Amino acid sequence: MIKKNKRPSLENIIESEDVCLEILHPGGLEITRELAQFCHIGKIIKVLDIGSGTGESAFYLVRNFNCHIIGMDISDRMIKKAKRKAIDHGVIIQFKKGDAHDLPFKDNTFDAVISECTTSILDKERAIGEMVRVARSGGYIGIHDICWKKDGPENHRLAEIEFRRPETLEGWKTQFEKAGLIDVMIEDRSNLIPEWEKEISEKLGRFVRLKIFLKIIKNWGIGGLRKVMESRRIFQSQDTGYGIIVGKKP
Q1: Alpha carbons 193 and 20: distance in angstroms, whole number
Q2: Could you say which of 18, 112, 119, 177 would form a disulfide bridge with 39 (CB–CB 3.0 to 4.6 Å)?
Q3: What is the DSSP letter of 237?
Q4: What distance in Å separates the CA atoms of residue 141 and residue 50, rounded to the nearest whole number?
Q5: Which one, of 58, 49, 24, lies nearest residue 114 by Cα?
Q6: What is the mean pLDDT of residues 126-131?
Q7: What is the reported pLDDT for 4?
Q8: How far apart are CA 68 and CA 44, in angstroms?
Q9: Which DSSP state fits 105?
Q10: Strand 240-248 and strand 182-188: pairing?
Q11: For the segment 149-188, what is each residue's pLDDT rounded down to a tens digit?
């Protein structure tokens, strides 16, 4: 059931329904692999995955990079699904409920801290600061997320509709550097957005899309549907991009 205080959002409605979408970010597991490589994730490395969702990326990293990983998400629904899948798949991964703004871990705990398409909906300065705090010296902080190709009125509108407040790629780099990270690198992956939109449409199909639209109208009315459609238009606009940002803790 959708909480009444949640705003009209395609992401909110997808999270609340079982619509067979396990990965809710552009690039799928391929961009997860890239992020892992940039963060030097490998054998016996301890990793924190913030906003781990249903655990797909965590399962992938354990199987392909032989790391120890903790998945953390604010959503009870996502944590329950991830734990159930871990049991079903016979994979030992710890999934915990937690707030990215106040991580329930001691300083210098993890070799790498990652977050996929989540940081732009958070208080960026506070969340990145927490990532840095729980990473050990020499460890890596890595995200991939929405970015703006240029500043404009769409930026403010997306914040009103979806809570998302992306940066330009250079802006993301500045946020990392302000948090004290060094050797910050950025990689433009804006080409993934149209591919992602097409993939979602194909996976959902007409029936499920209709179901989603009816659910939006039921919860938020026609005005809510208009906002969701406007949000989707912004994501599809030429001003919206996507990128990988990685920095090292001194």
Answers
A1: 19
A2: 112
A3: S
A4: 11
A5: 49
A6: 98
A7: 37
A8: 6
A9: S
A10: antiparallel
A11: 876 666 666 766 667 788 999 999 999 999 999 999 999 9
Rounded to the nearest integer, the mean pLDDT of the chain is 84
Residue 155, in any domain of the structure: yes
Task: Let me know if residue 138 belongs to a domain.
Answer: yes
Mode of pairing for the β-strands spanning 182-188 and 110-116 = unpaired
Domain contains 1: no
Encode pLDDT of 224-239 as tens digits. Answer: 777 777 777 777 777 8
Count other Cβ atoms within 10 Å, centred on residue 107: 10
Q: Kind and range of the H or E element at 246?
A: strand 240-248
What kind and span of H or E run contains 126? helix 124-134
Instruction: Assign residue 197 the CATH number of its domain.
Output: 3.40.50.150
**In this structure, which amino acid lies at residue 173?**
K
Query: Residue 86: how many CA atoms within 13 Å on its side-chain side?
Result: 23
Q: Are strands 135-148 and 240-248 parallel, antiparallel or unpaired?
A: antiparallel
| Burial class of 20 by CB neighbour count within 10 A (0 to 12, 13 to 18, 19+) | exposed
Q: How many CB atoms lie within 10 A of CB 28?
A: 17
CA–CA distances in Å: residue 221 to residues 19, 214, 215: 21, 9, 9
Q: Is residue 4 part of a domain?
A: no
Query: What residues make up the domain containing 244?
Result: 10-248
Residue in this structure with the two tokens 């990473």, named with its chain if needed: 135
The one-letter amino acid code at 165 reads R
Could you give the CA distance from residue 78 to residue 21 in angstroms, rounded to a whole number?
A: 12
Which of 68-72, 117-121, 201-205 comes out lowest in average pLDDT? 201-205
Instruction: Phi first, then psi: give them for residue 241, nearest 5 degrees.
Output: -130, -170
Residue 17 structure tokens: 């329904």
Residue 149: exposure state from Cβ atoms within 10 A (0-12, 13-18, ≥19): middle
